């Protein structure tokens, strides 16, 4: 006699209920909210002076794609949009994305906790990958500019 066969079941990477995705999304939203609150609460002087914390820049002297993001967020948190863009063009873009993700996460969570895992799918959207690629290309162009001294981009301070 043969063993009964059962139809294969579809399981998510986190398990049947997607708890891992929900927890990850909620943690990411909380970290993002904390970063935005810090950008608003920290004094503006932190963004205009202080040590270089970027390991890539310390070693090479060149800016990485993320150089200037913290200063950009602090400037934007204090309402200085032009300076925020001058520190890193993707600073205001990333802050807007994080704020939108927080709102989306809260909206989806209020509709039902079981649906919060769907927010994780936003990170796999082709537009997100396109913007990430542009951010990396911008960072490479900025590093080349800093290395060659052509002056196409504002200097990273």
UniProtKB/TrEMBL annotation:
Protein name as it appears in the record = DUF2752 domain-containing protein
Note the Pfam families from the entry. DUF2752
Q: What is the species listed in this Swiss-Prot or TrEMBL entry?
A: Williamsia herbipolensis
The source's superkingdom equals Bacteria
What keyword terms does UniProt attach to this protein? Membrane, Transmembrane, Transmembrane helix
Could you list the residue ranges that cross the membrane?
21-42, 93-114, 126-144
Q: Would the keyword Transmembrane turn up in this protein's UniProt record? A: yes
């Amino acid at each position: 006699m043969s063993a009964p066969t059962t139809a294969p079941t579809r399981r998510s990477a986190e398990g049947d209920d997607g708890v891992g995705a929900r927890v990850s999304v909620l943690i990411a939203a909380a970290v993002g909210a904390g970063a935005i609150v810090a950008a608003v609460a920290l004094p503006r002087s932190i963004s205009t002076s202080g040590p270089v914390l970027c390991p890539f820049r310390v070693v090479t002297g060149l800016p990485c794609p993320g150089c200037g993001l913290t200063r950009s967020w602090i400037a934007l948190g204090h309402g200085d949009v032009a300076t925020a863009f001058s520190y890193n063009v993707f600073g205001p873009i990333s802050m807007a994305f994080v704020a939108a993700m927080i709102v989306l996460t809260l909206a989806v969570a209020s509709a039902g906790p079981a649906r919060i895992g769907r927010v994780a799918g936003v990170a796999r959207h082709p537009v997100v990958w396109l913007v990430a690629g542009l951010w990396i290309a911008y960072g490479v162009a900025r590093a080349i500019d800093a290395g060659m001294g052509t002056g196409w981009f504002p200097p990273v301070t």
